[in-house]
Amino acid sequence: MRKPLVLRHPSILVFLAVLAVFTVGVTILSTGYGTGVISTSMVKTLGKTLCLALAAVAMDLVWGYAGILSLGQMAFFALGGYMIGMWLMVARTETIVTGSLANLPIPPTAAEINQAVATQIFGVVGSDQFPAIWFLSGSLIGQLALVVLVPGLLALVFGWLAFRSRVNGVYLSILTQAMTLALALYLFQNDSGLRGNNGLSGLQNIPGLDAVPQESLSIWFFWASAVALGLGYLLVSWVASGKFGSVTRAIRDDEARVRFLGYSVESYKLVVFTLAAVITGIAGALYYPQAGIINPAELAPIASIYLAVWVAIGGRGRLYGAVIGAIVVSMLSSWFTGGRAPDVNLGFYTIKWVDWWQVLLGLSFVLVTLFAPKGISGIFDALAHLRPPRRGGTPLGPDMGALQEREAVE
Amino acid sequence: MRSIVLVLALLALVLPLSARAQTADLAGVIAQYRDQIEKPSRQTVEPVVAAIAATGPQGAALLQAWGDRLLGLRKSDGRLVIAAPEGDALHLTDAATGADLGPAPEDQVTLLRPNSGVRGLISAAMAGSALSDPDPKRRAEALEALSRKGDAAQLGLLRQAMDDPDPTLAARKQRLERLLTIQYDTDPAARIAAMQSFGGDTSLEFRASLNPILTTRRVALETIPADANVADELAVGSDIPRDAAYAMLVDAGLAPARLTPQAERATLAQHIVNGMVGGVPVIELGDEAARDRAYTALEGQGLVQPAASEDEVTAALDRFHFLDVYAEPNADVTAAARAALRGTETRIGLMQAADLSLDALSLASIYFLAAIGLAITFGVMGVINMAHGEFIMMGAYTGYVVQQFISDKTISLIVALPLAFAVTFAAGVALERLVIRHLYKRPLETLLATFGVSIALQQLAKNIFGTQARPLTSPGWLDGALTFNDIVSISYIRIAIFVLALVFLGLYLFIMNRTRLGLEVRAVTQNPGMAASMGISPDRINMLTFGLGSGIAGIAGVAIGLFAKVTSELGSDYIVQSFMTVVVGGVGNIWGTLAGAALIGFLQKGIEWFNPANTLAAQTYMILFIIIFIQFRPRGIIAAKGRAAVGA
Amino acid sequence: MSALLEVSGISVSFDGFRAINNLSFAIAECELRAIIGPNGAGKTTFMDIVTGKTRPNEGQVLWGENSVSLLKLNEAQIARAGVGRKFQRPTVFEDQTVAENLTMALKAARGPFRVLWWKPGLETEARVTALAMEVGLDAHLARKSGELSHGQKQWLEIGMLLAQEPRLLLVDEPAAGMTLAEREQTTTLLRRLAQRHAVVVVEHDMDFVRRLDCKVTVLHEGSVLAEGSLDHVTANPQVIEVYLGRG
User: Fold this and answer.
1) d(CA A352, CA A360)
2) What number is the average pLDDT over the span B407-418?
3) Residue B425 pLDDT > 50
4) Which residue has the higher pLDDT, A24 or A392?
5) What H or E segment, with its residue span, contains residue B90?
6) Exposure class string for A360-387: b at 16+ Cβ within 10 A, else e
7) Considering just the CA atoms, what is the radius of gyration of chain C in Å?
8) pLDDT of A394 strictly over 50
9) 3-class DSSP state of A9
10) Average pLDDT rounded to a whole number, residues C85-98
11) Is the Cβ pair A396, C120 closer than 8 Å?
12) pLDDT at A348
């Protein structure tokens, strides 16, 4: 009776096809499984970029569809990373410690191994005890559950508090920023239980897979990231389509009016915010094993703002826009800051991109906001001859952040 | 005691001579007693000291150096020199003439090391003579030295020299005499009387004189001696943990050590026989119960020391008393000291609260200064300017650049303040004209666009000024602090910032309520359409308002730069707090910003007081508090009221 | 006949200004009622209170057979209880199609998870088409509502109101900005609605009210000045003074 989601929205199909081609292409060119044109570190960078793209998709759901400019998304991202990192670190250290203790004349007791692992991990913060929050760290299943639960619960509690008191617009943005700042400051303390500013490290070594070289492992993670992105994209597309998506966009445009239709705006925002947090947490859990290290600097407010920047440059309210924005800007950023971009010699001054990329990014961001509010995906619209509706009169609602020239997801 | 009398007698002999001896040649004295100076002995050194003391100020300097073990012989020529440490090297002065001999490496000088007995004589001679010196300055110096480190001998000297023509010094002597009495008098009644004479005095020196009396030592004793001055008996388990108590007994050799897992393991490892320990296979020893079995078996074979069992530990702990014992034997004295210290505590608490309030007030002024510009742009125009922090930074760098051209700190500050205003005013107007003007009614996009400006400006500052911190030095008259007493003090810079905050509050109120611009701004805020129809250009007003807000940020930047390091991240350090101030205070009202700044300032200091070691935690809790506060007052402390607010 | 909505003794003030002053009002099921009054009489504030947007400082708002207090409910709950509201300015979701707007308003479960799993069926599609036909927008179902004319938006909003199937409709100045023909149509529609719903029309325009031919409540300075048929209230000297005395 009704066509499946992907057929109603052909852009999803196109996106998944492009993602699949890209994934297979990278695999064929990789060092681990193919010709070796793409180095392992490049594969890792691409894998990480896919995770960032997933976070951007979630950000787009929250911002582009529900109109909540959350400047704290990276808090969920990092929490996901921390949760998986705890298991990785404990399991890995346990292997090492058991190996070294096995040489002693008397076999170690479980308590001794535990003690040695704790000393190994927490020695840097002057402790030899596992903090209480590590109670599940020995169990992969447990920590995987926490990857979903911890960001989800944080979003649920924070969102409930914020939406209940009808904090919105810029107030809400500032509050989310404060949330991530508070969390970052907390994690910077040595007695936070997550190794303070040392963070968790050595996450690229997957316990039990010591025999697998990083070349292959990087491709495994790359595939996992691609699958996660594909599934996340499908999930978010499904949520954002249909009546739920309709209500969500209506909330973005005029939430008071939605209330008078009998919808509990707060519950909808809460569902969207929490769902996005969970997706972001999962993205983080895939990102940090590829990055190898996580520390509280990852939660700095600026990181979350960058996420918003990617989505804005890619084009809000379009999921593929968010993905394009995340990929283009983060890849460009690593190209420029990695010192690979050629310097520009002006005769009197040489522009070193390492120094000037940030300036360029800031300014181009201003320009995009001013002149291309639809971002890169605006180009696709132009190609598809989609025109904004002929608009008469007033802006979309009392929420002045409501977009004026935005179409529904196609 | 005898030696004191001896010294006093000696001094009595020397003092009348001092008038004549004033002219005595120090060099001569040195030459005469050279051997004695180089290798002094407690028995024979007294006349030497007296002779040197008699030669006047240079002699005193020599004695001082000698006592401080800074008198030495220069290896090159054997000259007697006073050495002052200067970095890794020594700065030398001729001991006889006071002539500057310049710096010398440490190994060029053999420092004399008189023993403590000799040094006692030297300091007594110096203090005694100085306390009665005709020069009031020297008497004051001597008293100062005495207050830093007095002892029983000096109490006697001080009592000899109580008369003083200068009333201030006389009072000082009185006070010092009482302080030393508390610590060193032999008569407990006199000590207690001295303590009580201070009443609720909160000075550091009074408390410092009480503290040594109240120091305790923790001991474990089977019977409590009758003469022990016990401060507290500790109950095992509640006052002192069981493990710690037993560890005391073990350390004192009063009980056998308990078997720690490490020790057990090591012992077992020594007794592996054919892959078995005490009949238990080694393979099985990865288990605590199996290890205990093995150890017990070894105990049974008499191969290892039996470890203290849990019952033995309990018995030992029951047998002993764990006490905190005062070093001071007299119970009356310690009781009086305790009472006196308690008496000071309330007053100290109040003063600490006052000091904390001053700190909080200055922090609040900083937040107010940082936030006021933001409050203007946010409150009046509904525009969030994420680049506000970078305007603060620009102000600070303006101050730094001005100081590169004008070396006089006061003048450069006077130039920097209006210049910073001008620079950031211009930057603000430019930002408004080029970016924000096109984004009115799209506040979230303004937020992001200004963020783009913010990262560009930050990087630009990094490219121009580098990543290292640049100093912005405050003028000399802002150095130091206004000190009310030992506890309550506030630095002049902070006072200046407080004053600056007040000035800006006044200025804002004046502009808004007394000028044409303020009237127009208020009109545009309330009803832009109506204002426009009355001939007020909202465009121009928005531009000026934004410029004004940015300009104030620039001035705040100069102020903040005076006490914080000027880096490209200076602004972002303050931006979140500034937002919090505005949000907590309530938008569109200067009193709200003031209340928000006060709340955040006092809150932060308050939390820091509870947990002084951890400023990170303080900030975390403060932000949490604000998030929760917003729940109850979503529109801030001073909310805009009325129909508009309900609908907004 | 018991009242569907009973408002008694409500007062509300903003910054000391008493917008509503001890106002009492009741409406029965299937009654059509017009509220008139000069600017600032408190008509919109009254609607805000009933729909939960504004909380009164004192007084009671009781609803339905069980006399539920509406003051304890939030806007969404009041809307679900059966109070529909049409705003003065047409507020439709301009970014979405006419069909989407109507589907959203359609009486159905409102919880986020129920909505997430909601699927359009033949029945709902038929209902949407029927509603669109009723307000004359059946040709525009797939168009973005932002592209509609002002009058069409008014109609769409009325359609959304109908889709909610409320028991009480609060209609704020429905005739504003409409052509004469559209007014005629609106009058007919309101009268027809009143056969199955309670309808409160807030209006400025005396001619329009006269055409509605119903009981009229006159508000002035936040309280009821007069109540009765239009002829009755227009004969009231106080009403004349309020309306005419100020020119």
Assistant:
1) 12
2) 88
3) yes
4) A24
5) strand B89-94
6) bbbebbbebbeeebbbbbbebbeeeeee
7) 18
8) no
9) coil
10) 84
11) no
12) 76
Please name which of A20, A70, A9, A29 lies closest in space to residue A50, comparing C-alpha atoms.
A20
The answer to whether residue A397 sits within a structural domain is: no
Which residue, among A65, A101, A109, would best test binding to B if mutated, counting the most B CBs under 10 Å from its CB? A109
CB-CB contact of B147 with B205 (8 Å): yes
Chains with 3+ CB–CB pairs under 8 A to C are A, B
Residues for chain C: how many in total?
Answer: 247
Q: Do the domain assignments include residue A393?
A: no
pLDDT score, position B647: 29
pLDDT (tens digit, 9 = 90+) per residue, B333-386?
Answer: 888 888 888 878 888 888 888 888 888 898 899 889 888 888 888 877 777 888
**What is the Cα Rg of chain A in Å?**
23
The pTM of the whole model exceeds 0.90:
no
Find the CB nearest B642 among C14, C48, C53: C14
Counted residue by residue, chain A has a size of 410
**Contacts by A107-114, CB closer than 8 A, 24 or more apart:** A107/B282, A107/B283, A107/B285, A107/B286, A108/B286, A109/B261, A109/B286, A109/B287, A109/B288, A109/B291, A110/B286, A111/B261, A111/B288, A112/B261, A112/B265
Q: What mean pLDDT comes out for the span B317-321?
A: 84
Nearest alpha carbon to residue A122 among A90, A145, A169: A90
* pLDDT tens by residue, B581-629: 888 887 767 888 898 899 888 888 888 887 766 777 777 888 888 878 8
| Bridge-based pairing state of the strands C83-86 and C168-172 | parallel
**Paired residues of B230 in beta bridges:** B325
Only one residue has tokens 């008293």, namely B143
Decide: C191 and C32 in contact? Cβ < 8 Å: yes
Which of B334-342's residues contact partners 24+ apart within 8 Å by CB, and which partners?
B334/B213, B334/B214, B334/B229, B334/B231, B336/B191, B336/B192, B336/B195, B336/B196, B337/B182, B337/B195, B337/B210, B337/B213, B337/B214, B338/B214, B340/B195, B340/B196, B340/B198, B340/B206, B340/B210, B341/B207, B341/B210, B341/B211, B341/B214
Domains annotated for chain C, with CATH where assigned, are 3-82+166-245 (3.40.50.300), 91-151 (no CATH)
pLDDT at A88 over 70: yes
Q: What is the ipTM of this complex?
A: 0.87
Q: How do B481-483 and B489-491 pair as beta strands?
A: antiparallel
C91 in contact with chain A, both atoms CB, cutoff 8 A: yes
Residue A334 located in a structural domain? yes
Q: Which residue among A112, A179, A358 sits closest to B627, beta carbon to beta carbon?
A: A179
pLDDT (tens digit, 9 = 90+) per residue, A125-134?
A: 888 888 888 8
Q: How many domains does chain A have?
A: 1
Q: Whole domain around residue A335: which residue ranges?
A: 5-383
> Does A403 reside within a domain?
no
Q: Does B631 touch chain A (CB under 8 A)?
A: yes
Residues of C in contact with B640 (CB under 8 A): none
Q: What is the pLDDT of residue A282?
A: 96
